[in-house]
């Protein structure tokens, strides 16, 4: 578990921006419900537009900028990952399958042995 502090929104301007973004999303939901007589395409387009506008407003705040920075850093780390080749992936998958089969057989044998001890020897049941 990490001991880092959780950063909260402290700036009044950032709080206003995030509250406005939430209100825009709520307005999109309300417009989707109120315009029930309109075609579904129009209603969905209004809702998606409200999500896009809300995301734009939220990304103008400090938490939004931190989120974009985190995404860029994550993408940079992803490009540095050394992915296994197809042959390596197939070998590791085979190893996992063999291990699962061996553990399955072991657990089946342990179950049968414990069943025999409990029901056969201790309780005398057949």
Question: Could you characterize what this model shows?
Answer:
This protein has two domains: 1-81, no CATH class; 84-126. Helices cover 79% and strands 0% of the residues. The radius of gyration is 29 Å and the shape is elongated. It is mainly alpha-helical. The protein has helices at residues 12-34, 40-59, 62-80, 86-122.
Topology summary:
Layout: H1 12-34, H2 40-59, H3 62-80, H4 86-122
Helix pairs in contact: 1-2
What is the structure about, briefly put?
Belongs to the SecE/SEC61-gamma family. This protein is mostly helical and 126 residues long.
Report the strand count: 0
Shape: elongated
N to C succession of SSEs:
HHHH
Could you tell me how far the N terminus lies from the C terminus, measured between alpha carbons in angstroms? 51 Å
**Unreliable segments (pLDDT under 50, ≥5 consecutive)?**
none
Radius of gyration: 29 Å
Pfam families: SecE (PF00584)
Subcellular location: Membrane
Protein name: Protein translocase subunit SecE
InterPro entries: SecE_bac (IPR005807), SecE_sf (IPR038379), Translocase_SecE/Sec61-g (IPR001901)
């Amino acid at each position: 578990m990490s001991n880092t502090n959780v950063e909260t929104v402290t700036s009044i301007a950032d709080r206003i921006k995030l509250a406005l973004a939430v209100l825009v999303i709520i307005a999109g939901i309300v417009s989707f419900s109120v315009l029930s007589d309109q075609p579904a395409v129009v209603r969905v387009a209004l809702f998606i537009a409200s999500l896009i506008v809300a995301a734009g407003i939220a990304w103008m705040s400090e938490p939004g900028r931190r989120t974009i920075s985190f995404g860029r850093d994550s993408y940079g780390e992803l490009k540095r990952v050394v992915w296994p080749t197809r042959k390596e992936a197939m070998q590791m998958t085979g190893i996992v399958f063999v291990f699962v089969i061996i553990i399955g057989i072991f657990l089946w044998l342990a179950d049968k042995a414990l069943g025999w001890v409990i029901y056969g020897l201790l309780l005398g049941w057949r």
